[in-house]
Amino acid sequence: MSSKPSRVGACDTPSCTGDAETITPEGYVCETCAAEIAVHYEQARERDSEARGER
Q1: 40: Cβ–Cβ under 8 A, 6 or more apart, which residues?
Q2: Mean pLDDT by 10-residue block, N- to C-terminus, for the chain (55 residues)?
Q3: With contact defined as beta carbons under 8 Å apart, do 19 and 11 qualify?
Q4: How many CB atoms lie under 10 A from the CB of residue 30?
Q5: Segment holding 41, helix H or strand E
Q6: Could you give the CA distance from residue 10 to residue 46 in angstroms, rounded to a whole number?
Q7: Can you tell me the distance from the alpha carbon of 4 to that of 27, in angstroms, rounded to the nearest whole number?
Q8: What's this model's pTM, rounded to 2 decimal places?
Q9: 28 has which bridge partners?
């Protein structure tokens, strides 16, 4: 946890300074970070599908 106070309405991604706009499983984040999170979840879903032999 950071000792620096967070800015109200700020993205929850530690390295991002954008304004939070979207609630995700990773927290309240900006649209750019939300898109990156969505890509990671989709890649994980594809890997799981391949591991189960669904493709």
Answers
A1: none
A2: 66 94 94 96 93 76
A3: yes
A4: 20
A5: helix 31-51
A6: 31
A7: 18
A8: 0.73
A9: 23
